Known about the structure:
5% helix, mainly beta, Lipocalin, globular
Amino acid sequence: MATTKWSIDPTHSEIGFKVKHMMFTNVSGKFGTYDATITTEGDNFENAAIEFSADIASVDTANADRDGHLRSGDFFDAENHPKLTFKASSFKKINEGSYEITGDLNIKGVSKSVTFPVEYSGILTDPWGNTKVGLSIEGKINRKDWGLNWNSALETGGVLVGEEVRLNIELQFVKQA
């Protein structure tokens, strides 16, 4: 069977995250510059090869000072680690619309295996004749597992920045000719 390549459609994708701030509200952010590819056998997504990278310099939380802090050595250290990467080791079908993705997430030079549930849209054709597929990924990681340790104690108890990072990722891919 022929190998099929799928490229990300950045105008219909979003790499989002949320972190608790001051223990009670969420701060949302996203990466503006990223790339992802999928390689499948024909149109079968089971066991697909999936690779993703995001430019750390493109982190955006709608606050320039906070974004600068996130790029610094306290967090992502963009100067020495300009990209966050993910390479799937498994993409397993659970049932018709559900998959599970496992792979190595590399942040700040630290690589850890993670597993997330994936909602799979199926293959669709857009009004312009492009063959597309959509994937929605939600999951949680602990930022300290990747050495993103900075924090500040609050006078009232607790910490300024939560350890749990919730991921909310919407990806649309276009089949390549």
